[in-house]
Amino acid sequence: MKSVIFSRFFILLPWVLIVIIMIDIDTKRTFRSPVSARQRSQRTTAANLSALPVIYAITPTYNRPVQKAELTRLGQVFRQVPRLHWILVEDSSTRSDLVSRFLARCGVAAYTHLNIFTPRRFKRAGMPRATEQRNVALTWLRQHRGRKDAGVVFFADDDNTYSLELFDEMRSTKGVSVWPVGFVGGRAYERPLVVAGKVVGWYTGWRPDRPFATDMAGFAVNLQVVFSNPRAQFKRRGSQPGMQESDFLRQITKVSELEPKANNCTRVLVWHTRTEKPHLANEPKHRKDTVYIEV
Ligand SMILES: *[C@@H]1O[C@H](CO)[C@@H](O)[C@H](O)[C@H]1NC(C)=O
Ligand SMILES: *[C@@H]1O[C@H](CO)[C@@H](O)[C@H](O)[C@H]1NC(C)=O
After folding, report:
1. CA–CA distance from 273 to each of 129, 185, 188, 217, 270 (Å)?
2. Which ligand is nearest to the CA of 52?
């Protein structure tokens, strides 16, 4: 009797093993490492990158103790964005070595380095900033890109904090798109109010009377809109601080035409950060180090 049970056992054993192996293979297939939607979309787009509109990120910058640190922080984000062309515009009479060297090794494949000096009479408190730099970048685009180029223009100041998701959102901009901007250091933010998929106004703590109560980092413009409005630019004359965005946007769009991004403007994907001004009083007045180090 025992020997019969044994022989049955040995006949069944290989089959049992096969079943166990099959189950194991199947569970391995099911429990692969999770892949985020973003990674998946990157994989599919990687196969067809040339189909993506180029994001032209326009960044005005000026020489100051935190400049290289800010640009490094920004460059490390931009180098991860597919098909991004960085237009960096220095407020200076020449292109500086610091910024040239930085751009050459920052890892952003496509960039353009421009410069224009802001006249001294405009460099006063209460005056809008970086007007000339943004306009020079718009002129460059109008001269070097054409009707056939698919692109999206975005004004990316060098002191903000950008989520990579923001670039996925803005890339599909058909006309002018908007989204919320967070202000670091509180609960404050500015947000386009969206009803039934349409922008109807603004949630903001500051000057809600502005026609477009958004920050420079709160909108993107399709490149073709830049061509259809060849005279649209940032204004010095008659523009108050905080009105630059409104004065520019009213030249190219209407509030009712804005495209809400970031989940109907309910997610913050960019923050208006401010780097603390460094206190240099305790630092040596002149370099004491024996080697020259660029900071
Ligand atoms: C790449 O994108 C273009 C435009 O969207 C499309 O026509 C083409 O078929 C795509 N190519 C591949 C290999 O997916
Ligand atoms: C935004 O709102 C519209 C209208 O309510 C809706 O159809 C659409 O799916 C929403 N979009 C997102 C991304 O939630």
Report:
1. 16, 8, 12, 11, 9
2. 1
Q: Which residues line ligand 1 (CB under 6 A)?
A: 48, 51
User: Nearest to residue 156, comparing CAs of 96, 204, 220, 243?
Assistant: 220
Using alpha carbons, list the distances in angstroms from residue 181 to 112, 192, 219.
Answer: 26, 9, 9
Identify residue 64 by its one-letter amino acid code.
R
Catalytic residues: 245
Domain annotation covers residue 51: yes
Residue at 266 is within a domain = yes
Residue pair 170/259 in contact by the 8 Å Cβ criterion: no
236 is in which domain, residue-wise?
Answer: 47-272
The answer to whether residue 9 is domain-embedded is no
Taking phi over 0 as left and psi of -120 to 50 as alpha, with beta for the rest, 127 belongs to beta
The answer as to whether 39 is a domain residue is no
When pLDDT is averaged across residues 87-104 and rounded to a whole number, the result is: 98
Q: Cβ(88)–Cβ(113) under 8 Å?
A: yes
Give residues (CB < 6 A) around ligand 2.
196-197, 263-264
pLDDT digits (tens, 9 = 90+) for 36-67: 666 666 665 566 788 899 999 999 999 999 99
Domain total in the chain: 1
Tell me, what CATH number does 115's domain have? 3.90.550.10
Q: How far is it, in rounded angstroms, from Cα 89 to Cα 276?
A: 22
The answer to whether 94 is annotated as binding is no
Q: Does 5 have pLDDT greater than 80?
A: no
Q: What is the pLDDT of residue 130?
A: 93
Tokens of 17: 């093993």
